[in-house]
Write a structure and sequence with these properties.
Elements lengths: L1 H15 L3 H19 L5 H4 L7 H19 L7 H13 L4 H23 L7 H12 L5 H11 L2 H11 L7 H13 L4 H25 L5 H13 L4 H21 L20 E15 L2 E14 L2 E5 L5 E4 L3 E6 L3 E6 L5 E5 L5 H13 L17 H11 L12 E5 L14 E5 H10 L1
Antiparallel strand pairs: 1-2, 1-7, 2-3, 3-4, 5-6, 6-7, 8-9
Amino acid sequence: MARFTQWIAKAVESLIDPDRNVRQQELVQRLHHGIVAQRQGFCLSAAIQGLDYRPSDLKTAKEQVYRHVLSRGWTDGKLTSEEQGIAAWVAERLEMVPDDVQRINVEHACSHFAGALAQAMEDGILKAPEENRLREIAASVGMSLPAFASRFFRQEGEGFLRSIFSACVADGQISQSDWDYLLWTTQRLGIGQQELLAAIHPQAQRFVEHVLADAKADGALTPQEDATLQWLLANLGLSGEFQTYVQQEVVVLRLLAEIAQCRLPSLSPPGGVEIRSGEIVHFYGGAMWREVRALKSGMRLSEHDGMLMLTDNRLVFSSPTKSQTLRYHKVVSHRGGYDRIEAQIEGKPSNTFLLDRQSPVPYAIFSTAVAMANQTRVLKAEGEPTRHIPRDVRQRVWQRYGGQCAECGATDYLEFDHIIPVAKGGSNTDSNVQLLCRRCNLKKSDAI
């Protein structure tokens, strides 16, 4: 908005005062020529005598001349004591306001500081000669390196800090030594840890989301992934709300890892539901049973709200309108996800149970319980397609979508999704994998 306002102001000014640029250039030429020709004999009032100008024109012209002198001094990337003296003499002869002089000095120094810092950090190591060069740039405006760096990063360099952090995590990983070195480097430049954390907050949060999406890609959490996520949450200064979200996802992933090892949770039997002797309850929650019946007149759909229970040998649905029990050993096919369990008994239409609370846990329990009941929890046959997406593919897909959902641009609850499902012949190649948030992924599942 500020830039737009400035642009409007300049446009209006050019309309009501079209000769301003001409007057300013005449002043610049007169001032520059006078300083070069007269040197010590230069007098500002004499140099501009007879010219038609406004006070704002003169101020702009003086700044242009002074900037030109500074630019020449900075040509080799540094400003020597002699060049600083010349610049100070020019500012004095031009009768410039000290605050304006300091502002312009800092602007030039910041520009060269950014270039020198970028060059110094190309290899990720701040060497002594590079640090000395930065120190010289800060000294050119009478400041220490920590003081100048702090001012630079407050005004100009948040983007640079973010780029440094982004470079550290470009391969999707960051080690304790990488983080320690980043902290050490920024501290050498006068940047405190809290200031660094505030600057990199958006990139840090997106990186944690990346690590979390990687962990969710195979539906389980390895000890290394768990440790990495806990370290990131402990060190990156992320908001309490975001940390709570990540921890909730981690709890689910830990549970999925247990389920994958056939260690299903055991719950106390819910009240009001008949449990057989020795039967173990693994899940209990609200759901809607979408029943499909084959009638002479055609297929008929009815829906019943109730409670879904998964035990060690059967699925039980209880509702005031109608109930259903499916024994695992009779299930011939099934599929599911965050919001549903679909199961088919031989010779019968498919049963769909829509979960009140979206979670991958109920279907994971159901799938494992069916496999255990039928003693089919074995290794996949050779050549059978797998849903596992290689890490290098996930890394390229993440970068391609910039850590955002391909459909809505969301940056949370992200998941790697097969564009063409594996069950329908889809591959694990870059071209068949996209990044979707859970909401869009569920919408896609509904449409398939």
